[in-house]
Amino acid sequence: MSIVEELFPLHRTLVADGTDQALEVLRRSLAGIPYDIENYAPGAPAWTWRVPDRYSVREAYLETQDGERIVDFADSALHLVSYSEPVDRVLSWAELETHLHVAPQRPGAIPWEFRYYERTWGFCLSKHAFDALPRDQMYHAVIASEFGRDPERGLRVGLATVEPDGGADGDGGEFIVCAHICHPRQANDDLSGVASAVAVARALAQRPLLPGSMTVRFLFCPETIGSICFLSHNEELIPRLRGGIFSEMTGNANSLVLQRTRQDSHRLDAVARHVLAMRAPEFREGAFREVIVNDEMVINGPGVDVPCISISRWPYPEYHTSDDTPAIINEERLVEAAHVIEDIIRIYATDYVPRRTFRGPVFLSRYGLWVDWRTHPKLNAALDKIMLRLEGDRSVFDIAAEVDVDYWTVREFVERLRSEGLIEVLPPPPRPSE
């Protein structure tokens, strides 16, 4: 919660001083974990996109002809449509009305509106305040905003990297966890996802993944354009990525929901279901792009297609309004989501496909592999089933699910086979049919 509360007041848009400050807060929150900030110059190409300009606001307000201040950016950044162009105009109600935005479903709240990729302007206010405005007066709209193109002050993303025990494995590949940092005065969307991701990074750093596992990369970035900038400027990383999770909206009062990968029946989907059934049995799920749409369209989309799920608590009624504050977030829910994400990673990033190097039934006692049925009855009963599934067409997780034995128990046994040279590890199959 301390992370959410510290980041909440900052004016965090796509490219802004507040976003830069937030990334530095995360550097401090991830102390001891390798952390870098990458910068992409405004106007630079990012696949079919362009890096947006830096946005800054000196002041912005709307007042009546009598000088009564109706909305003021100084009171809340939500009063201004994000990326509004400069304005200093006197307008009639007919001229002004199309530039005003309300949230009819929450008449007492200020909506959050943005126009990142078009040059226009606007103000946001509660429906109650909007209804009370006189229609027969003139209004003075002032927006003192600037769009900067300094290449050294471009769009920035934060990158934390957590390696497995023993360091990065050349064949292990990488897993990516993504969360948004850019929504001004929004707490659950998505500072909650950021906080949960930070908790996961800390946990994986404190208790590293087993040797030979995937490296886990955490990407904190502005929505959509941030992951586009990162991947378009680091295309050599894409072939190494084996999966991803989008962490968002993890603190509100709703059950957890899994949004499946584009592949829909990927091993990552199965691992996620398994963990959620253990950690949060009331969880819901939906197909790719049918729960809450975000950067999975980049990570799991055209030309990249890294299997990517999202973990969230969508929907919630305060979404994109001034009611989305730290007050609607419960720290226990943040922690629950972090545990789910961590467990998914711990299984998926350590899983592999084993293939036998032996013929006939293995003389288990010769290798110290016999399992005493009196102390481990379930594993003892499953031994034959496990040995018959080492043909290189199933992962350890697949085998564990089929024989109905805990993944870590099966993995430990398979690792013992591996240490005796009785299996070999196959390289991961190519995407997207992995």
Derived from helix and strand composition plus strand pairing, the structural class reads alpha/beta
Question: What is the typical, i.e. mean, pLDDT?
Answer: 96
Question: Count of helices?
Answer: 12
Counting DSSP E segments of at least 2 residues, the number of strands comes to 18
Protein model, in words:
It is a single chain. The protein has 434 residues and is an alpha/beta fold. It folds into 3 domains: 248 residues, Zn peptidases (Aminopeptidase), CATH 3.40.630; 93 residues, Domain of unknown function DUF2172 (Glucose Oxidase, domain 1), CATH 3.50.30.90; 74 residues. Helices cover 29% and strands 22% of the residues. The protein has 12 helices and 18 strands. The strands form 5 sheets. Strands 1-10-12-11-13-16-14-15 form an 8-stranded mixed beta sheet, sandwiched between helices. Helix 5 packs across helix 9, helix 7 packs across helix 9 and helix 11 packs across helix 12. The longest helix has 19 residues. The chain is elongated. The two termini are 37 Å apart. 45% of the residues are buried.
